[in-house]
Fold these 2 entries.
Entry 1:
Amino acid sequence: VPELPDVENYGRYFKRHALKKPITGVAVGDKRALDHISERSLQDRLIGARFVSTRRHGKQLFARTSNGGWLTMHFGMTGQLAYFKDREDEPQYDRVRFDFGKSGHLGYIDPRLFGRVGFVDDPNAFIRQHHLGPDALDAKLTFQRFKEALAGGGGLKAALMDQSRIAGIGNVFADEILFQVRLHPLTPVERLTPAQLKALFATMRKVLKTAIAAGAGAEGYWERLPRTYLLRQRHKGGVCPRGHGPLSIMKAAGRTTYFCGQCQKRV
Ligand SMILES: [Zn+2]
């Protein structure tokens, strides 16, 4: 499931393959992938224009067009982007295809169709309407703002995954962050000491940046993560990278959660 690090790398991929090329066509393979816009309106907005820049907020990706206005992309459970030179190489499950004349095509691929592609005039309005909190890697997210954003009750995992508090973290990276900082997923936010909160903030940023640098979003990228990472062991039979034996599995925030009962004591 694409989370902040994956979407950050999708954004870089989009930049590499889709910026500055005249858009000559838009083909919608499945209308369910569209977010409150018709195929016709999307074509009207895009054909003849170019993508000029990208912006990411949490798990949401935006691409500004030369006509003004922004393409919006959310990747749901299984979404990703794929560039291909020839139409005959179009991947399966291509839900929205952007054509760039002789410069190839970019496909928005989503087998399970939980993601959405749309178009807005103002990404800030979009972020407000979707009640997204500050982006987890935003330079303007100071420790003070992080502390305020995270407050509001509940266990740590639920708080980290709540997109209205902090945007970008999902099931997998919540587990990784909490393992790295040695905090239990069900420990209430309010129980943390100021030092623990500071460590959580620093660890959140470090984990997300490490995953981006390791190539999050690409198949098998987790093999390039440090050996100390839970993600490499986040499967049945996985063990604590610190040598404590099998990981524990439970439900937290309604999601399957991996943690080490030795490293992460509940308080
Ligand atoms: Zn452990």
Entry 2:
Amino acid sequence: MRLGLDIGGTKIDAVAIADDDMRLLSRVRVATGFGAEAVVRNGQDAALQAAEAAQAAAAPAARIASVGIGIPGIVDAERGVVRHAVNLGLTEVELGGALAERLGAPVRVENDVNAASLGAYHLLALTGSMAYLNLGTGLAAGFVNDGALWRGARGTAGEIGHIPVDPHGERCACGQRGCLETVASGGWVARKWGGTAALPVLELFDAADAGDPRAVALRAELVDGAAAAVRILVLTGDVETVVVGGGVSQLGAWLLEPLRASLERQALESRFLASLALSSRVRLVPLDRPVAAVGAALSGVRPEAAA
Ligand SMILES: [Zn+2]
């Protein structure tokens, strides 16, 4: 079996998938903890629990062939090192090496958006080229072509959240001004709308539906920003499909419908954009599936492949 761990700010989502047909064998969730020691220990626990659950349910003789990890922060996928995962309390940790030793299997570490990209591609049974647009606290994308991740020369491919779109916009954490992420992300909603809900964007869309003018305006800004991201991904990568995922995508059709409407409105003003058929190329990630953990499992390297 192949194990996949999606290490998030609060929980680790761990799955086991079958070696041959990649079907889901088990899924467990464990609290992430904070700091290198806790993250490594809880990652080990999550992996072992997923493996035991898979053996109990479906595959008693199955061994752990590989482990893949998706984690936020700057990831050196070759060396399995994670840096600057601020929310997890990690400045620099050799996560791959530490877990490989404890689990007795090769471990591959991926950036969380890249892992989710692979998972979305697989779970939607896509072919050809895809961009995965992650609308979470921030905004970033991953590219998959014919089933393989495309990271770019230095691992920066898809960092479209830091394309400046408003020269007079607010200062971004990256140092530039008016980045796309500063006008279209869950973090932007939380700053602008505030609110008390766990997911402020849900509260925002509720208020907009109820006719609150400030919410209506913010919703339109968010949706148009997401539409700009879709446009950028197709214009730079000419990907066949753009899959929208991340926390904001939990809105489901509530997000997808106005997003498509925004793309169609822009197409009315430009024959060039109309020819790209952007609205028909956008899809939502499957909301009830462990996309990032499955993608992490798929990114794991088998021993024979690593040799
Ligand atoms: Zn930026």
